[in-house]
Design goal:
Blueprint lengths: L1 H20 L17 H10 L3 H17 L3 H8 L9 H18 L6 H4 L8
Helix pairs in contact: 2-3, 3-4, 3-5, 4-5
Length: 124
């Protein structure tokens, strides 16, 4: 009986280590890594992008950067140009979260739920 438990424990530990060692898959989507790019550079890259998906992603990054720099108005204008349906699910959540943060920035009395309905009502 103890031998069976040891074997079971060893198998569980091996499975846990194997799961932790593998690289995570990115099926949900990530924002492009553009640490030194300005908002204008991101928008320029989006305009020159070869695919609509990449353009949407670069615009989303530009909107996020504008928001982090404290320019909520510019962020909202850029975010309106992002076709959310072209984004992966994780990126859609990010866009909706940014929209909720912008809604709270423009009207502190709201709790942000209206922003979550922005172009993706299924998130509630």
């Amino acid at each position: 009986m103890i031998a069976c438990l040891r074997l079971f424990t060893a198998l569980c530990l091996a499975a846990l280590l194997a799961a932790c060692a593998s690289s995570p898959s990115s099926s949900l989507g990530e924002l492009p890594r553009t640490p030194d790019a300005s908002i204008e550079q991101l928008l320029d890259q989006a305009a020159k992008s070869k695919t609509p998906e990449q353009a949407a992603l670069l615009r989303l990054s530009a909107a996020d950067l504008a928001y982090r720099q404290g320019n909520a108005g510019q962020s909202a204008q850029i975010l309106q140009q992002v076709p959310v349906e072209q984004l992966k699910p994780g990126q859609q959540v990010f866009a909706s979260t940014l929209a909720a943060e912008l809604a709270m920035a423009f009207s502190p009395k709201t709790d942000g739920r209206a922003g979550l309905l922005w172009k993706h009502g299924s998130l509630l």
